[in-house]
Amino acid sequence: MIVGLGNPDEKYLYTRHNIGYMVAEKLAKQLLPLERSEIGWEGNKKFTAQICRINDSLFLVKPHTYMNRSGIAVSALAGFYKVKITDLWVIHDDIDLPLGKIRIRKGGSSGGHNGVESIINNLPSPDFIRFRLGIGRGKLDIKKTTDINLSRQGIEKFVLSPFRDREGGEAKKMTKNTVKAIVLALEKGIEKAMNRFN
Asked: Can you tell me which residues bind tRNA (predicted)?
């Protein structure tokens, strides 16, 4: 089960916090024939999520519970489909990584990410795989330095902002590389993906 984290409302569509959704959608297009990938996502009210089934043993998920309650949908789906913790992969933004950087890891803390924290709190173990995607850290005023610590309110505003025009190319490249990393992990194992992309 591969989960892309984000917020469902249209106003959040292209924000930094929704990079998990973006990767999940691009992954569906990579893994499915074009005609299936366009209609592959189905809303599921029971689990409050959109689900795209790739085959009998792999499906993609976009929780629609909003970021802070992602764990509710993830836990319900993992329980229903009897997904092992190590077979749960979560894709999410990471403000502590520079824009474009990818880090793949197993387990650990949430690093202050509310969506990951919610998943940890709703599962018996934190040992799921995370694909952490760097969205940069900075003020919304591009004239000021981006290498700063933001207030909590500043962080919320930043992660819910869209990528700037000058960041668009890097964000697209990161999305593409994350899809490559996931496909490699599916085919050759998570260690291979870590060695190549971390």
From this structure: 12, 66, 68, 114
